[in-house]
Amino acid sequence: MSVRKEDYESPVENHWCPGCGNFGILNAVRRALVELELAPHQVLICSGIGQAPKLPHYLRVNTMNGLHGREVAVATAAKLCAPDLCVLVHAGDGGAYGEGGNHLLHAIRRDVDITLVVHDNKVYGLTKGQASPTTSLGEPAKIHPRGVPSRPLNPLALAIALECGFVAQALSSRTDLMTDILKRAVRHRGFSLVNVLQPCVSWDKVRTYAFYDQHCAPVPPEHDAGDAVAAFRLATSRPFLLGVFFERQGTPFDERVLPQGSGPLRDLPVEPRRAEHIARRFR
Amino acid sequence: MEASVRIAGAAGQGIQTAADLLGRALTRSGLCAYLYNDAESRIRGGLNFCHLRVAPELRQGVVNRCDLLIALTPQAVQEQGPNLVPDGWLLCPERLSHPRRASVDIETLAGQAGSPKSLAVVAAAAAACWLGVARETLDSTIGELFSSGTPAAEINRRAVELGFEAALRHPLPRSLKLPAGPPAGRYWISGAEATALGAVAGGVRFVAGYPMSPATGTLTALAQWSTEANLVVEQAEDEIAAINMLAGASYAGARAMTATSGGGFCLMTEGLSLLGMIEAPGVILLAQRPGPATGLPTRTAQGDLRLALHAGHGFFPRILLAPRDLADGFSMTARAFDLSERYQVPVIVLTDQLLQEAQASVEPFPYGSLPTRRYFLSRDELEAMPAYQRYALTESGISPMAAPGASRHVVVADSDEHDPDGHLTEVPALALQMAKKRLRKAATLARELEAPLAVEGDPRQHALVVSFGSTHPTLDEARKKLVSAGRPFAWLHLDQLWPLPASLRTLLRDTPHLLTVENNVGGELSGLLSQVGLREPESTIQRMDGRPFAVDELEARLREALA
């Protein structure tokens, strides 16, 4: 039975601003899931707080919309307990790189088989225009009227430095490319980071659709995605490249830590006799 | 009829290993031992001790007097010497003079065994001999503790032999031998291991935690057994990750837990609130130590009762349980998983350093009587449903729970206020419905968890003492002494601290004098009883220095308070 786009239709009214970059991401995710022939009940999207994390409500899909910045921790455990699910995380730049920064580092280390899609619009939208960790140095923002005094985080360089399994960047308005990248990210066995550049039509008058169209270019075709040093050089020198920067296939965390041959942890019964067996060592 | 042995020395001298060896050997000999630990937060130096109480039947009250003091440093002799009973004996290096020093030269023997580090094991072997442990029992016990063939195993085997033989040559003038029953197959187990075993029996499949004394032992035990128990233990990057992992595992349908102490629990409070909102089951072992802040990291306290009750913003139902001893630690932790999944609420199990790190000879646990039901909708039940709503409105406030991926339905959970489908909403009528649903669930919990109160004595005639958690064994012994001395009082030990039983109201109202006994600074239980409008206790007996109450101390303080 093939999966159709309509299977993912949600009855929930969309609350994003008209013209929001999130719409492009929503369309690309749905297309990627349909093209991967994943049915809604086979997919779990974890998210936190902000505009981006509302995304799973606008798809008919298993949803765990938790706390701000903690979505990767939730997704890690959910994947371990229900490994039959395809697990994605949708977070904003604030949740993924600010509030959840520490979790991101350790999720990359674990290399659990989940895909983190960061809606990177370089601004806090839902709280009305504060700086995010990716806002440029010196750029004025609500709580930084004289300009952001810190240097921005470079998420791609950070992930590549940690040899994250799959590192890519997309642009919310180029859905064909994004769909392709998302499919590769989901297929990658391990932790995938897809940083999606997107305009914020309400709070950012500089980085508009036209701005991104003008500045973005594909990752050069000669780039070797297996070369971390080359990927790092690209990520630090050219902020608006789109495509796959780095890919490394390791043994995913789930394969390393899950008990073998017992089926998903989710489905296991309560077995007091296991405790009794273990307790023989105390006699 | 009992004997107490205290082993005191510096951190790094192996006193815990020696005490473990002794307690284990005594258990294998058909005696019952109870061991509690008093240790500084350091790896080397200072003064630590392990106290072993030995009797034909298990006595878990804390006592300070000892019949045999093993003191490995001058500081240990000086500071612990006063705890020796007048006809007791001191086992210490020969160069440390003391009128009650037993004539076994443990220092020379340790040298002969091959390492000065075997000092504590030499002394423990001598103590075992004096307490009537057979040589072969001791030998097989040392085999359990050290894998054979290693240099350390050889040194310890030799240390046992030398210590035991020396004690045979120099019997104590007052025998410490106790009548042992037949080896009864009792466990020699720690509180941390008992709670971990309870978690396994309760069906835990996913554990996330960040190391913090005194909770770490539970995580360690679970990690060691993960293959046999068929579970995953993950050391999270912090407590915030741990509780959110618990939420993710639980949402996905697995029984999940975390273990922490007060500081870590504080970091978890937003996550606790998340569990409340998404109605995810989850067990949180809160092993208390004194605060505020870092407090006394290796000491004990019952100071987090109201923290556990109030932690997390917004209203949501929860259950608070406090085991009284090791056996209870097993049963209550197992039961916590059942309650948590049945009612879809977080359950907090309150232990403390005293209980976590104590070791005891306990009867095998009652595995056969534990609940084994899982409360998720089955695949067949789900496939038969035309639609599924995670937060369907019900009279009990409990909605049928499905796991994601278990059927063609999708499962939607949201930390925002949500509609019955799980989607975020701000519609006032829906928000009200959900708030009322959670209130109904709280009422269901209170109603269904109401159990008769096990009160000792007559609270209408005499004063009523209320207590909770690890003070139980010590208070029990202190009370028996006072009752037999003609100073009766009634006693209620609360195992379930939330929801509080409704029948508590009349009980507390009708007693002439109400007091609490608690190991904390803030008067947590006393405060709770007042706060919920039950009654303000007239007095509170507290111990505030991070050490547990001892039987004699509590007896004297109760006598004074009840006068």
Helix content of chain A: 25-40%
Percent helix range of chain B: 25-40%
Count of DSSP E strands of chain B? 20
Tell me the series of helices and strands of chain A, N- to C-terminal: HEEHEHHEEEHEHEHEHEHH
Count of individual helical segments of chain B: 21
- Sheet/helix structural class of chain A: alpha/beta
Strand order of the largest sheet of chain A: 2-1-3-4-8-7-10-9
What is the overall shape of chain A?
A: globular
The dominant shape of chain B is: globular
Provide the spatial order of strands within the biggest beta sheet of chain B: 5-4-1-3-2-13-6
Helical stretch tally of chain A: 10
Reported for the largest beta sheet of chain A, the result is:
8 strands, mixed
What gap, in angstroms, lies between the N and C termini of chain A?
A: 55 Å
Number of strands of chain A: 10
Known CATH architecture of chain A: 3-Layer(aba) Sandwich
Query: What average pLDDT do the residues of chain A reach?
Result: 96
Radius of gyration over C-alpha positions of chain A, nearest whole angstrom: 20 Å
